[in-house]
Design brief:
Radius of gyration: 21 Å
Strand content: 15-25%
Strand order of the largest sheet: 2-4-3-7-8-9
Order of helices and strands: HHHEHEEEEEHHEHEHEH
Length: 312
């Protein structure tokens, strides 16, 4: 931005991120607990849409007109840097909100078990059976320079792993969580105890990669460009464009890579190259990825009307 330029407008994308922060702020408001949980899920869903629709336009502007500032006086590269900084902070705020709401849920008897060491013997046995019955048909992938890297579809939840081969070489692998598997799995022996499907998968990565020693693992997810360019002046353009673009929504350019906070840095760098996501749009999260599962699978739980707004 030029020093002589005094902007009279706010940048559209940064304003949208400020709006999403106001949505997130509702998680700390006076609404019933499950309504505040819902706001966290809405914040996560909004953020996905922001990257699928808004960010691609900034990336395209950077390629076509890198020296052209927007109405707020920001070049595309400056917008991208500001977006990266703002979203990184937003991840921290979302994680803090998740921890706070999880503690409040635990106080009323709804507990999400994240550490396998906290499972009882009965619950651990149940998770073993769940993996064998629901996760036995997953297809593991080992990234190799000798073969073409696999395509990572948008919005799919993956578990990545750092692997040690018999020779001592370090390799990297991944397995996708099947979309047919629920994210939240109820545990036996304790009312209100639940575990995330990816945490069950995490416990059994050694079974999925039997020829390797699993050194570490962590979840990741790619968000891809789902924006639709169309000629509004051309008759029939809307229907034709939508028909053509819908199958491609999960195959567009990678516009965000998110990974668990503790994931090995070498694996994150590899995934960034494999996915093609811009380096400044790689983010780490302490909370579980894709928090939209809260609205789909936690919010509908039977907990009494006191924790939700009454239907109208």
């Amino acid at each position: 931005m030029s020093k002589e330029f005094t902007p009279k407008f706010f940048n559209r994308e940064l304003s949208w991120l400020d709006f999403n922060r106001r949505v997130l702020a509702q998680t700390a408001g006076s609404a019933p607990l499950f309504e505040r949980l819902r706001f966290l899920a809405i914040t996560a869903s909004n953020l996905d849409e922001f990257f699928m629709i808004r960010v691609p336009s900034v990336l395209r502007a950077g390629k076509k007109h890198p020296d052209r500032a927007d109405i707020a006086g920001l070049l595309p590269s400056e917008q991208l840097t500001a977006i990266s900084r703002s979203v990184s902070a937003l991840y921290g705020e979302m994680s803090a909100a998740f921890d706070q709401l999880s503690a409040q849920c635990a106080a009323m008897g709804i507990r999400l078990v994240r550490d396998p060491a906290d499972l009882t013997a009965e619950q651990a046995e149940f998770c073993d059976g769940f993996c064998k019955s629901r996760l036995s048909d997953v297809t593991p992938v080992v990234f190799s320079r000798r073969t073409e890297y696999p395509f990572l579809p948008g919005r799919t939840l993956w578990m990545g792993a750092v692997l040690k081969w018999k020779s001592g070489d370090t390799r990297f692998g991944a397995v996708a969580l099947p979309p047919s598997v629920e994210r939240v799995v109820k545990l036996p022996g304790e009312d209100g105890a639940m575990i995330l499907a990816e945490d069950i998968l995490r416990r059994h990565m050694g079974d999925i990669f039997p020829d390797y020693e699993v050194l570490s693992c962590g979840c990741f997810r790619v968000i891809r460009d789902a924006d639709v360019d169309m000629d509004e002046e051309e008759p029939g353009a809307l229907a034709d464009t939508v028909r053509r673009m819908l199958p491609l929504r999960s195959k567009g350019q990678a516009v965000r890579l998110e990974a668990e906070k503790g994931m090995d840095k070498r694996l994150v760098r590899l995934l960034q190259r494999v996915s093609g996501a811009p380096e400044e749009l790689v983010f780490r999260s302490e909370a579980p990825l894709d928090l939209t599962f809260i609205e789909k699978e936690i919010y509908p739980l039977s907990v009494g009307d006191i924790h939700r707004y009454a239907p109208f």
